[in-house]
Specification:
alpha/beta, five-stranded parallel β-sheet, 12 helices, about 55% helix
Length: about 260
């Protein structure tokens, strides 16, 4: 699948028929806009979190307007429209409601940024079907996922998100524990939290590859900086799941690899 096709397949980006027939020059211009978004968003995110911590609602709302404009520039119209509606309805005297929406928005935009970066970085990829024919459903019952996270609650949320997905989830709370488990199991998929004490997810992924474990790796993260993503790509990441976990997003992403 070409880079253009991968970008067009990102659910949060909306393209008219005319835009799908962009010339090479128009496409290059659009990619430049995507690159600006990727580079700029982490700084906006940091400022937005800071304004929430200081309860500066004026700055918070100003930053939300800027993020909304960024989303429109890259054709993420549904996210932008929702942000616009929220902006008109916010009550500064109830910051908790603003904080709740901002958490949702940042999670959604982080996921979008990661999807864009994956599409732009991986020049070609094989299309993996999201759904599997009913005749093969029984085979999926034997598919296993090794989920590694030092946060027990996050593991609980992950399992709950996959309650309707026929697979076996094996949990470990550290990289060392996960490596010990591999003496007895051979997972079909690894889901690794990156920010863990001792051995982080990227370090664990490097060891897995050195040991000949070639099952797809999905990282749990909340970081969408380019440097961070590049480091993940170097160890062969297949996909990302953004924290805090969105159950619907988790299920759809995981099923592509089972």
């Amino acid at each position: 699948m070409s880079i253009r096709e991968q970008i067009f397949n990102i659910p949060d980006l909306v393209f008219s028929e005319e835009m799908q027939d962009m010339t090479d020059e128009q496409w290059d211009e659009y990619v430049d806009v995507l690159q600006v978004f990727i580079i700029t968003f982490p700084t906006k995110e940091m400022k937005l979190k800071s304004s929430l911590n200081t309860k500066n609602m004026d700055v918070t709302l100003k930053l939300l307007v800027e993020i909304q404009e960024m989303l429109r520039d890259i054709n993420a119209f549904e996210l932008a429209d929702e942000c616009s509606k929220r902006l008109y309805g916010f009550d500064k005297s109830k910051p908790e409601r603003i904080e709740s929406y901002v958490a949702f928005l940042l999670s959604s935009v982080t996921a979008l940024s990661l999807d864009i970066q994956m599409a732009l970085t991986q020049k070609e990829s094989q299309k993996i079907p999201v759904s599997i024919p009913e005749t093969t459903q029984d085979k999926r019952l034997s598919k296993s996922i090794l989920a590694v996270d030092d946060d027990v609650y996050c593991i609980h949320l992950f399992k709950a998100a996959l309650k309707d997905v026929p697979c076996k989830i094996i949990a470990a709370n550290s990289g060392k524990e996960a490596l010990n488990m591999l003496n007895k199991i051979k997972p079909h998929l690894f889901v690794l939290d990156i920010d863990m004490p001792g051995m982080n997810g990227i370090e664990l992924a490097k060891i897995l590859r050195k040991q000949g474990q070639y099952a797809p790796i999905i990282f749990l993260t909340g970081n969408a900086t380019m440097e961070y993503v590049q480091e993940c790509l170097q160890v062969g990441v297949a996909d990302f799941i953004v924290k805090p976990i969105n159950p619907q997003n988790v299920a759809s992403r995981i099923q592509k690899y089972l």
